[in-house]
Specification:
four-stranded antiparallel β-sheet; six-stranded mixed β-sheet; 10 helices; disordered N terminus; alpha+beta; 564 residues
Length: 564
């Protein structure tokens, strides 16, 4: 059976097969009208936008010369996705008609809109306190508004009129990485067993929730403590007794198998429970969409191969407005519409018969911050490629590196940072000339583990973890630090500090507050007993050949205060 014909859908097949549910059509029409209203201010600009859109589609080709059109398109028209992020809250199950449930092509109800009303706080699956902000707290909006007023009076935030109307709040951060004080240590949550190492940590888009995956197949959500929001740190009361009430997760989600990857819904805001969700992909299971407010599963996105067997995605990422969910597989990627769970998807072939392409498993993806349809994908076989969700083919291909484990664009979209396994460098490419490497950033990665790094929203700082437990930071606006001589600059970190005794695999800068989260742990294998350690005088022939690893183990998540 041909996989593209049986399992994917294009425009022609959507018209000829079973009709799209009326609820989805109405939702698409509303989103389309809203986007058109936000981005087309007059008829002339609307016509230019359509002409450029047609030009984008006609000029796409799989070579390194055509990629620059996408960036020029954003620069010329100052494309802004902020309105799209705030208006396209197309959370699964919510539609303008108020009807419950969405049906697939066979008109079988997939799920119910359990978020049609405010969630009932029954106290189950929550250990967060009432004084913390984030998920599982009905007083979050009141506290946020109070903090906004206080911070605005103190001059710590820059608010434009549109952001005030939408309830958004943005800090002008000045961070310090010189021996930052530790705020919290969540080691009690990960002390169930010695091998319960973490798998990175990610702040939510609103900066109030921290999502952490671990080896026990659980995902935990920690709320940002209220004193940190009010800049009441450090204080004597915090270190004596106040910190203890924030040491447990607010919400815990139990997955069925080993977690591969996870990502927040990009429009997530804690004061809007309908937007509080995240996607998770795990072994031998579909991609699951979980409710971050109460820990319930909302929907599943299933992928099937040419033998009609379910295959698990190795990576997943939302596009900028959250309407698409892109999943990485071996030699292909599949795109799901967020509002249409099930097994209906589009396929992007990274390798086509008779052509060169991106080989291997797609390990990570990163969407361009200014162009919603353009994203970069990395492969475990050491290559990165630029794709367009509309054209479904690569427009740029770069190879010749170690297995890629993490990708991230700078906030302005001009720089691309690439991290690899068993590589002591973070590669930086200038997207205005991506065929040549711009510079390297020195770090220590000696294993195949995914070691995260992060860039702050102001494009000022780059931070990364290391397998030796340290955190390295660079000031991207100041290159006065030492450089390793060579044709391509290799920059040493401007500041480092020891965050964990074990591998620092996850790191995440809060987008709105001077707080950084780090996570630690790795898989420790038994060590072979040396000949000198074997007791030759012993008559017992059952002496063990292996012993537990003697390297330090630390499985935890820590918060660090970066305020000056």
């Amino acid at each position: 059976m041909d996989e593209d014909k049986s399992l994917t859908r294009d425009e022609d097949s959507q018209e000829s097969d079973s009709p799209i549910p009326q609820q989805c059509m109405e939702l698409f029409e509303v989103l389309h009208a809203k986007n058109k209203q936000d981005h087309m201010k007059d008829d002339n600009k609307s016509q230019n936008h359509q002409d450029d859109k047609n030009k984008m589609q006609s000029n796409s080709a799989a070579n390194t010369k055509d990629w620059s059109f996408y960036l020029n398109y954003a620069a010329d028209h100052e494309y802004d996705c902020t309105n799209t992020l705030t208006s396209a809250v197309c959370k699964v199950g919510h539609n303008p008609t108020g009807e419950i449930g969405v049906e697939d092509m066979s008109h079988e109800t997939i799920y119910e809109d359990h978020l049609s009303s405010e969630p009932e706080d029954n106290g189950e699956n929550r250990t967060g306190t009432s004084s913390s902000l984030g998920v599982g707290n009905n007083d979050s909006q009141t506290e946020i508004e109070k903090i906004e007023v206080d911070s605005e009076a103190n001059g710590t935030m820059d608010l434009c009129e549109d952001q005030k109307n939408e309830g958004a709040y943005y800090h002008s951060l000045d961070l310090s990485f010189e021996s930052p004080p530790m705020v919290l240590d969540y080691k009690k949550e990960f002390s169930s067993c010695k091998s319960n190492f973490t798998k990175g940590c990610k702040w939510s888009p609103d900066g109030l929730c921290l999502l952490v995956a671990s080896n026990d197949k659980k995902l935990r959500i920690f709320n940002l403590p209220a004193p940190l929001l009010q800049n009441n740190f450090p204080s004597e009361a915090w270190f004596t007794s106040e910190a203890e009430q924030y040491e447990h997760a607010a919400v815990t989600v139990q997955e069925r198998e080993l977690v591969y990857d996870y990502t927040w819904y990009p429009s997530m805001r804690s004061d809007n429970p309908r937007s509080c969700c995240f996607a998770v992909t795990c072994r031998d299971h579909p991609v699951h969409l979980w409710d971050a407010w109460n820990g319930e599963m909302i929907a599943s996105y299933s992928s099937y191969d040419h033998l009609d067997q379910m295959v698990a995605a190795k990576s997943t990422a939302f596009n900028l407005d959250g309407t698409l969910l892109v999943c990485g597989f071996n030699k292909c990627m599949r795109i799901f519409h967020t509002c249409r769970p099930g097994r209906i998807f589009d396929t992007i072939r990274t390798v086509k018969k008779g052509e060169t392409g991106q080989q291997g498993i797609i390990s990570c993806m990163a969407f361009h911050p200014l162009i919603p349809s353009v994203f970069m994908a990395g492969s475990y076989l050491g290559s990165i490629a630029l794709y367009n969700t509309g054209e479904k083919k690569a427009v740029l291909f770069i190879s010749g590196m170690e297995g890629v484990t993490h990708l991230q664009f700078s906030a302005d979209g001009n720089k691309l940072f690439t991290g690899m396994r068993t590589s002591d460098e973070i590669l930086c490419y200038d997207m205005r000339n991506p065929t040549e490497l711009y510079c390297r950033y020195r770090r220590e990665v000696t294993t195949h583990q995914r070691i995260y790094f992060d860039v702050d929203p102001q494009n000022k700082y780059l931070v990364t973890g290391n397998t030796n437990g340290q955190v390295s930071a660079w000031n991207l606006l100041d290159y006065d630090g030492d450089q390793v001589e060579g044709p391509i600059p290799t920059l040493k970190p401007s500041s480092t500090f020891l965050a964990h005794k074990d591998s620092t695999n996850g790191i995440s800068l809060n987008p709105h507050y001077p707080v950084m989260a780090t996570s630690s742990g790795q898989r420790h294998f038994p060590e072979l007993v040396s000949v000198s350690d074997i007791d030759s005088d012993s008559e017992d022939d059952s002496q063990p050949l292996f012993r537990p690893s003697r390297s330090p183990q630390e499985n935890t998540v820590k918060l660090w205060w970066l305020g000056r």
